[in-house]
Amino acid sequence: MTKKPKKQQQASGATPAIVALEKAGTAFSVHAYDHDPAAASYGEEAAEALGVEPGRVFKTLVADVDGALTVAVVPVSGSLDLKALAAAVGGKRAAMADPAAAERTTGYVRGGISPLGQRKRLPTALDASARSHTTICVSAGRRGLEVELSPADLALLTGAVIAPIARG
Description:
168 residues; five-stranded mixed β-sheet; three-stranded antiparallel β-sheet; alpha+beta
């Protein structure tokens, strides 16, 4: 059975993440909110603005695992466990990536990096807690814009390994 995408934004204003979801025929919804540049945490701001529990809003982080950029998708209510990320993708050591390298490689700006529609597809790990939700929210590729979709669809579209990579 093919799922029809829910289009709540015109294609002309669509981000690469939204275009990727539409192209794949994945069911999703778009949620926009007014981003405050002074917000201390982009993810917590999104959860509060959308009225969604922080455990259902996931942030996209880029790490360097043994010299290769790798995407980690973890709940905004927690933090990334770098050792667990390295183990999940078969590496030995992980550190947060240089923000400029993350932006250049993904094609997105910090605070708006989406795990979907990146300029260069990177190895991806999705925290196992995502499985406990019917849908989760991730960045749609710009600050103030989130997409909601099933964790299974996110894992499928990104080729993500699902593993316990978050703390807290």
